[in-house]
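User: what does the whole thing look like in 3D?
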Amino acid sequence: MSHILTLLVAVPMLGALAILFMPRQNVKLLRNFSVGIMLVEFVVSLALLWDPTTQTRVSYAASGFMFVENYSWVESLGISYKVGIDGISLWLILLTTALTPIALFASWQSIDTKIKEFALAFLLLEVGMLGAFVALDLFLFYVFWELMLVPMYLIIGIWGGKDRVYAAVKFFIYTMVGSVLMLIAILYIVAQYKGVSGHYSFDIVQLTRLSLPRTSQFILFAAFGLAFAIKVPMFPFHTWLPDAHVQAPTGGSVILAAVLLKLGCYGFLRFAMPLFPVAAFESAPTLAVFAVIGIIYGAFCAWRQQDVKKLVAYSSVSHLGFVMLGLFSGTTQGISGAILQMVSHGISTGALFLLVGVIYERRHTRDLDAFGGLAKVMPIYTVLFIIVTMSSIGLPGTNGFIGEFMILSSTFSSPVMPFARSFALFAATGVILAAVYMLHAVLKMFWGPVSKKENEHLPDLTRREAYVLAPLILFVFWIGLFPNTFLKPMEPAVERYVAAYVARHTEASDVATLSPDPAAPPGSGEHAENAPTDGPPEARAARGAQ
Amino acid sequence: MHSDFFSFGFDPGRLLLWIVLLPLFGSIINGLAGKFASRKMVSAVAVGSVALAFGLAIACFVKLTMLRHAAGEEGEHARILYTAYEWFSVSVGNVNVPIFVRFVMDPLSGVMALVITGIGLLIHIYATSYMSEEPAYYRFFCYLNLFMASMLILVLSSNMALMFVGWEGVGLCSYLLIGFWWENPTYAAAGKKAFVVNRIGDFGVLIGMFLLVYATQSFEFDAIRHGAANLSGATELAIGGMAQADHHSINVSMATVACLFLFLGCAGKSAQIPLYVWLPDAMAGPTPVSALIHAATMVTAGVYLIVRLSPVFVMSPVAMSVIAIIGASTALLAATIALVQNQMKKILAYSTVSQLGFMFAAVGVGAFSGGFFHVFTHAFFKACLFLGAGSVMHAVHAHGDADIRELGGMKKFMPRTRMTFLISCLAIAGFPLTSGFFSKDDILLGAAFVGTGAWADYPSWVGWLVLVMLVIAATMTAFYMFRLYFLTFEGDFRGAHGEQHAAAPPAPSHPGVEGAAETHALEASTDAHAVAHDAHGHDAHDDHAHGHDAHGHGGLPHESNGAITWPLMILAFGALAVGFLGLPHWAHLPNIWEHWLEPVSARLPGVETEASAGLGGTMMLIGTLAGLTGIAIAYRWYMMQAGETPAALAARFPRLQAFLMDKWRVDELYARIIIKPAEWLSNFSSEFDKVAVDGGLTKLPAFAAQAGSWAFTRLQNGLVYSYGAVMVAGIVAITFWYLIPHPNLQSAVQGADVKYVAATGYGYEYRWDVDLEPGFETNWDTNTHEMTASFERAARNRGAAVMNGRPGSPPPVIQLRHGELYAFNPRDFATTEWMKPNTDGTPPAMTWQDGKLLIRVNDAEVRQDGLPTTTPTISLAPGESVTIGGRLIRAAGVMRGTVEVRNVFGYVSRESVEVTIENAMPQAAPRGAEAHADLRGGL
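Assistant: Here's the predicted 3D structure for the full assembly of 1485 residues, as structure tokens:
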């Protein structure tokens, strides 16, 4: 049994521990060490793709979770340290390990106070994000989910802009409200599980076997859904996002947009939808309405923003509407497209925030009217900005297109979602609106004469900034041209997921029941050799008796 | 990579890939390294890559003809196919449909590839000279090569998804090249406008594509073409996901919907009503761009797509009619605008819009081969016209565009440009035996052909309407093209502006001088047109900021150099000669073009005949006359009269003149009806987000929490008397609660009984009345908080008629005591039969007697259990029903329970609950199980 996932969570945590013992005066050490440890982390995460011991590529074709580790934690309550990944979480983990060092490295250009704390916060943030992506135990997931909140709260609140405290508190409370409801829901499910099986378990694989009554499903799905919808954020729970983005330092914005929001989508995919398939299935059209509203509304809001960061933040609302639409489409490629779109959005919006950070450091403003004609003074910057813009508006050949196209066309012909074609039709207008607001920003920033004196001698991208952006640009084209590199590994997991999800969407009984076949639950089948000998013997006997 | 890449005949498919890759690599090389390379290197890479691609395209084309000949009868399906790799897949229903990066050369894409690479090569060569003074020379060629690659992907892709890459790719290049001189905000805005308008079209392409893929489960053009039969005009698909509810589905055939959405895309790309507005503005780009992208290639992509999918389009005569009418309207509208414009490129731009309208009119009337032939011929003469205009502007150092009122007599200075321009004008005017003559006649004939009703499904009036509009447009075309020609090349040079400018450049910009930034943009934009400096031995200057300072002589216009004139001459030759590929079939001449395109252009369903020689000859005559008339009027007005008539006309109809000059004020209209509302919506959204969404979901709860916390802090004031007051209030409240008993009466049906339950409380005593008769049956008792009543007994005394109400509203219930008579009144029923005049003078009525509902019907149309009944009085037991006058009436039992509760203080509370049991009389059910009775309880 490989311990790679534990290693992934441990490396940044140990790094954070080491940082604690470093002198705060040694800024260089702190900076280099924190980025270094994240690069190590990235290298470690590559082992998820390529197995160094056997010298082969890791195949994600097998059914069930990979790299599973399962240790009992609180035995009496059935809480365990259970981690594992599949093709769905794989790319989100790699996105996290790849973007965190980039974001931190970019931050070191502008963050010059409380270096030690910043490094600490960033490392802990990485622990939280990775932990949430690998956790297969609801309790463990909840711990990491909440853990993530604190460093981000600090990053916004301490190193943020003018109204940082307002934004940080808003971010914290808004997300916390959702999380608390989710916690109650988690406890309720576990109690139900105990009622049927005779023992406690927080194991998502076990819990997915539970069929709850329809009404309970709806209530619980609402509690989970609210927590995740706030994180995504779905319309109308998005208003914390522009504030958080505007106030957060560049690195914080990058991580927020690239990874944290994805945890909301991931939560729907991994927990809310498989746990409550009936409720998810039946509320899919309603949620799709909100997703489509988000696409159009986010775009309209983005168009009017004067602050570039706010514009990008609203564009995230619009883009994540696509992701949610794909998730609810209930089709294999719709969901694959949604996952790819999560990664793509992480890359292009991450890059956009980095680019906005670059100009902010030079001009100390993000007001669109403060720029104009930058193409003349900063040609390389302009080229990169336009490439990323094109990726953001989904130009074919870039990463943005693939996910959007898969989502739209798969939703259009979705056999399971009512009104699917209307949703796709309205969502597709987002394609037009994206061009409107992004090109509006490009026009104001780059074209025309250099109208402001302050802009006349702005330096172009430094080597350091170019290094930070280069890998993102590479992936813009890699995903755009060869998306199958990313889609093929996730395909088996998504196919199983969809098959199980669609199969179980009518499966609600008057009382909670346990599905007799432990291999059936969506996305949660397991290798036989990894199957934990969970629960006391009498529990198994009880299950056998059904 | 592989040694067999260029070994022809080995795998021609690989060559297809390289046709696309070469310009792409050229673009990447120039984009990355062009800044550091010399202009010669940049030109070599750019021109070289296109030249190689042209060579490969010829090779593939030759191979394709060989394949077709070799295959004989089967030659229809000859094609060269190359699959590079699987790109990604999408779900269509439950099926995974893979999308391949796959290129195909068939008769259609073969011709397009030749046109794109061939004319592209000429324009590249032209641009090496034309743009030679441009500081961002490498950037220009980077974009131009990228455009070539995108356009080749567009035409060579074998499936719609890959085509969309090219489709949007050319849009991007168009954006970049229109805004090439981005320092001028107008130019940059024109680029943005082009991109956004094109995106509106792309939305249509996406939806159209999804519809076709939904039906055929494939992105491949071949599969869609073959699957066109699946798209029969049936109403199987309702747009908008309403297929579930059939009665709500829109009764439009899928083919029509798909074709109209696709046409929206074509209208965007090919500048048709209502999306044509970007093309005239696109002339902000450098002239070679106007020639290549906005005349010869990109803008014809819409026509290409329709021809490519022609089997789908012919299924929907409705969509075809729409396309034909819009095409003809565009042709006419743009021609009227072109009549009065004075800028060379503006005239040519509207002429392009107009000619594209001709092409769409052609495919709209089913003349696919003819429409595409016009694409082909138009590529030659329009590219030649644009390049010729560029050559003229170049010669007079015009800014961005040249005003024809300030030209004239150019034939003296630039004979080659003049000859090629004249030839192209003749071609576009449809002068006999030029290329435009043949292609335009094909179109007119196509319109006349469906006008004669040859295609039974197609409305013939559309054919005639289109024909008339096109003939008028053709006359105007000939007129404004020759107006342009005569004013530019004939007469005397009126180059006041040109010379004045050359002698005294306006506001030369110097660094630091106020306003430098403003003039700078113009300087940069004009620089490219000042190419002549270099070609004529003036000092080359690096710093383009003072480009025009160095140009301080008043030289006369002059012929351009070879890099410019040779492409012109080749194109002019094409404009003369290529028409002979499409000689009219009706005259029994070999129509190579039509034969070549036979495999790709769909036949009109049910059309067996061909246009007769008589019709063909007539159309040719009309077309020729239209062209000659236009030329003659232009000659008379501008050569013989020096423009008095047009001036007089303009003076006489100033408003019409202004209206045409302002391009029908369509831009202003759009600004008002689309852009302004959209901006308003955007402002509204952003304010709404701040006030309503953020306010409602975060500020309001936050305020509530604060208010609550404020209130609670107020309570903790530390004042003993206030604590005492609260305590007293609490005690009073608790006492009050205990003082008054709370029955909280509930009821439930249990078997044949109804069970009433009152709340228990300390010291409560109960007495009950559950039999609907006055008076309590039980005496005060502490143990009887539950009471059961037999339904059957109770229902004897009281009942109800439950009537079938209007859908969506609860059924009206009329309660009746024993023996109580209820006379119906008209408001009770929507139907009239029930209220027929009474036969015996007694109003229709009902009553409740001994547990039965009795209804006297008075001749109403009554159905009891589905059968008509003649019984004058209907008797219904609870649960039974009858339909009277279309209205269902059900008898139901009503029960009422009342309880009085007394507590130890002697206070008494009373509560009643009423139960209507609509279903059959409940039977004693098995123990423990609840009877499924529909309960309607109420106080």
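In plain terms: The first helix of chain B runs from residue 12 to 33. The two ends of chain B are 89 Å apart (CA to CA).
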